[in-house]
Amino acid sequence: MFSRDKWNEVIESLSSNLFRTVLTAFGVFWGIFILVILLAAGNGLENGVKNIFSGISSNSMFMWSQTASKPYKGLPKGRRYNFDLDDVTSIKQKVNGLKYVSPRNQLGGFGGDNNVVRGLKNGAFNVYGDYPDIQNQEPMKILQGRFINQNDIENKRKVAVIGEGVLSELYEIDENPLGTYVKIQGVNFMVIGVYKKRGFGGGNAEEDQKQIYTPFTAFSQAFNYGERVGWMAITAKDSYSVTNLKEQIFDVIKTNHKIHPEDDRAIGNFDLYEQFSKIQGLFIALNAVAYFVGILILLSGVIGISNIMLIVVKERTNEIGVRRALGATPWSIRGQVLFESVFLTLIAGMAGIAFATGILVIINFVLPEGGDIPFANPSVDLPTVIIALLILIIAGLLAGFIPAQNAIKVKPVDALRTE
What we know:
Elements: H1 4-15, H2 18-52, E1 60-65, E2 83-84, H3 85-94, E3 98-107, E4 116-118, E5 121-123, E6 126-130, E7 141-145, H4 150-154, E8 159-163, H5 164-170, E9 181-184, E10 187-196, E11 211-215, H6 216-222, E12 228-229, E13 231-236, H7 242-256, E14 267-271, H8 272-315, H9 317-325, H10 330-366, H11 382-409, H12 412-417
Parallel strand pairs: 6-11, 8-10
Antiparallel strand pairs: 1-13, 1-14, 2-12, 3-6, 3-13, 4-5, 4-9, 7-10, 8-11, 9-10
Helix pairs in contact: 1-10, 2-8, 2-10, 2-11, 3-7, 8-10, 8-11, 10-11
């Protein structure tokens, strides 16, 4: 219930020594400011990483064959083997919960020989033999033309989708590549599309644009790969975890190629879902650190407010004695001290939140939109603000508890004698 007298008393008490009150409140202001900024920075880092990897199917793994490290069923240790299309069929049939199983073959690459020629220009590029599903597993934007489709696979069409980096190296500026031919290790492929990938930063960002995609069947026929599969990109359905399905996939490969069931070194893999889970755990840890550091700094401010309230109670001992003599209950005395403590804490904390919000608005205004830096839209959501306010209220109550207890311990007779 609103009481003008109570509010006047609070304002008069806190403004009697305004400079002291401001200095004391600054500890809470700074603590909540640091808490909000740290949480916003953690969210900004998480948003930036998610933006960079947007479009990629994170519930995926990549798998390739290695050397068998154990003898099995008369076959020697150290033997080499290759995946084939029968493995792809077996995995699709025997492992429930998979969304895409994309076999791939690959030629060339950065640092290798020039394997692609067009006219008088040539270059060393990664050339992939793929199925259309690979477009759903890698972030890619088609700038011109189209991507490979099922008809290309069935008819073994020698067509290619090139990256922006390939376009800039093999073609003149503003030259239309669609319908032209590039020669890959002596075999002509017609260009049907141009793609652009989101860069992931680091040394591979430029190389991601220097790749060529061809139909798996045409690639195998042109370069004599037959049924062989170099490696696979496997994606699980949303309700499944590819990490949990991984062992079932390995068991299928081991059975098909007579590999020892305990030979874990015979199959190489990179579990993208597992890596994303670790990154997600890192963000949770960063938020925990933010709360820990912010609350510690806030605690120092609470201690300052508790000290100032002890001084205020000491200065108002005579007043408290008069109020007790006139019939004020211990709860009314305690409530007044706690109310003043919570009020001061909330005012300082809200000022800290407002200042932090202003800083975040400026940062968001300065940050470039759509960049590849792993930091974007640093902000805090409404539940976080509500949690901060609850922390402030609890902090205010803690700050005023000891001074309030001291206030009600004062005997009216002793308080009236105080000068």
